[in-house]
Prior knowledge:
Elements: H1 2-27, E1 31-36, H2 43-54, E2 60-66, H3 71-77, E3 82-87, H4 96-103, E4 113-117, E5 134-140, H5 147-150, H6 152-156, E6 160-164, H7 176-186, E7 191-194, H8 203-220
The protein binds guanosine-5'-diphosphate and magnesium ion.
Amino acid sequence: MVQIKLESQILGANDLIARRNSAHFQENQILAINLMSSPGSGKTTLLERTIDALADSLKMAVIEGDLYTDQDAQRIEKKGVKVVQINTDGTCHLDAGMVERAFKEIAYDGLQLLFVENVGNLVCPAEFNLGEDLRVVLATTTEGNDKITKYPLIFREAQAVVLNKIDLLPYTDFSLEQFQEDVQRINPQARIFMISGRTGQGIDEWTQWLLEEVRYKISTG
Ligand SMILES: Nc1nc2c(ncn2[C@@H]2O[C@H](COP(=O)(O)OP(=O)(O)O)[C@@H](O)[C@H]2O)c(=O)[nH]1
Ligand SMILES: [Mg+2]
């Protein structure tokens, strides 16, 4: 009982900061995306591909959430994009306060697209609003079909679900039909992308959607 009270207080405080982040993104016409998945699904790889594809069209920045290391931030930095590392020191998700502090380190003048790579986890990140515009969740062909129904919250609240590693489809028992059916049942509004961060398949459609969302944000800002 005490624990439940404590949790609701923490979430209440988080939501206040998330609202502040959201207002800040709105004022500056920045589209903020919270990128979530289990560890190793290809979040950083997708960011690398996205930066390669959109570097000439958009000004982007990345906030990297990790338990202890800055390995992902180093990968993004190599792409020439501003990146800020948050180490959660063992905490299994980012919260709005962490993002607010990290965002202060970014020169947001002219920034159009901010990615937040959340800690690899399909449970905790879903509970914490960061003030983002869009939530994107990655699933992979190697994780099995059951993850959508086992972790419904994170998939229910996403605006887009990206199925990665489709290059490995022939080596798995993953069913694309089952995947589409499960996502549509849990979240009928979600956009579905099927991609390979390895071969680049499907990346065009994904980046086209990002461009449309950035334009939409600017037109409604
Ligand atoms: N075969 C294959 N491997 C991939 C793909 N995307 C990422 N990987 C590999 O999966 C591993 C984890 O990728 P990473 O981007 O670090 O995942 P993250 O932990 O979600 O950020 C790395 O070895 C990547 O090279 C893909 O589409 N196909
Ligand atoms: Mg990563």
